Amino acid sequence: MSSPTPDRGTVLVVEDEKHLADLYTEYLADVHTVRTAYGGSEAIDMLARDVDVVLLDRRMPVVSGNEVLAAIEDSEVDPQVAMVTAVDPDFDIIDLGVDDYIVKPVSKAALRDVVDRLLTIAEYNDRVQQLTSKRLTRNVLQVEKPKSELENSDRYATLEAEISDLECELDDLAEDLEEDDIVRHR
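Below the sequence we write its predicted structure tokens.
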């Protein structure tokens, strides 16, 4: 099942209970592009670079959520992953390699919040990478070019502005994530 929508991200719902998979898809389909896999094997086949978030049931017959998670880790894709499961968390989740862990039953609001938070984390990580790259470029120029040449360069001024803009975006995203964390733990 797939649904073209206003795209804030692509979500892969992996759930062997068809009614839950369809319900989660319905919860998200008006905001996100949603793909639905009704089992672990199907999920592995549906993994693609454009998947931003995977909502993954942990206990599924044949191919478990843990096996799907291992396939994700071994692949070229790097989505944010939330386990959405009836399995109460234990200390094994420390090494599980997921970005969030949600115990069923899950409300529409909770599922949307998880996806939004994971997309914000992904956006934050992308911006950190961009900022790091631009700062490294600036550092090379500062070492290799005289200060007067830097001061007279429009391209260098643009680079400085881009760095400043990214720093502001990161501050805003970090603030959003902190607010999400505060609201979530009330």
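The longest strand covers residues 80-85.
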